[in-house]
């Protein structure tokens, strides 16, 4: 029997996304967000939802662009810190020991040390409630060669991305492969 636990922000898995923006003075900023994901195939788009109270919110609105850097397990401490501190009062890149790199596609920085980067041009904004959802068209993806599979695409086992568990307020790693998409269920078709 299922037990109701009420309406909550629980969805598994939840990605750990590092939102890169520049402030009005060109200072690079990075913020951890977990409310986001792919939202369209053509054009390729991704969403991220931020509260208006965050420094990154105003930076994103002003620039019309953002990056999403995907950290590996190695950087869980830095990723957590980027979600707790404010770029308004701190140089988060310096404190976390990370390197900002100017995107060559959009007006936003990304994190050099993280293996996968999505460069996004803001195309839509939706005010929902406490959060505003930003839809960005993915104009380029950059990946460290060390995390690419033989087919030239990112390999999740090599990337070792961090997953966030909202109910537990904890970070987890990716588990083992259990099947192939668009194949495993063919027997039932």
TrEMBL record:
Residues 9-164 form the Flavin reductase like domain. It comes from the Bacteria. InterPro entries: Flavin_Rdtase-like_dom, Flavoredoxin, Split_barrel_FMN-bd. Its cofactor is FMN. Keywords: Flavoprotein. GO terms for molecular function: FMN binding; oxidoreductase activity, acting on the CH-NH group of donors, NAD or NADP as acceptor. Signal peptide: none annotated. Belongs to the flavoredoxin family. PANTHER family: FLAVOREDOXIN, FLAVOREDOXIN-RELATED-RELATED. This is Flavoredoxin Flr. The gene is flr.
């Amino acid at each position: 029997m299922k037990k109701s636990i009420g309406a909550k922000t629980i969805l598994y898995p939840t990605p750990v996304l590092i939102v890169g923006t520049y402030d009005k003075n060109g200072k690079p900023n990075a913020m951890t967000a977990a409310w986001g994901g792919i939202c369209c195939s053509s054009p390729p788009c991704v969403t991220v939802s931020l509260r208006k109270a965050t420094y990154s919110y105003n930076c994103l609105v002003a620039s019309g662009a953002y990056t999403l850097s995907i950290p590996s397990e190695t950087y869980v401490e830095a990723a957590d810190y980027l979600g707790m501190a404010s770029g308004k009062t701190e140089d988060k890149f310096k404190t976390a020991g990370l390197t900002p790199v100017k995107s060559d596609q959009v007006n936003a920085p990304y994190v050099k040390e993280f293996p996968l980067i999505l460069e996004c041009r803001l195309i839509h904004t939706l005010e929902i409630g406490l959060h505003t959802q930003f839809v960005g068209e993915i104009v380029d993806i950059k990946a460290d060669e060390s995390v690419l599979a033989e087919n030239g695409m990112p390999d999740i086992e090599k990337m070792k991305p961090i997953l966030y568990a909202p109910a537990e307020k904890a970070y987890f790693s990716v588990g083992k492969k259990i099947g192939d998409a668009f194949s495993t269920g063919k027997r039932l078709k």
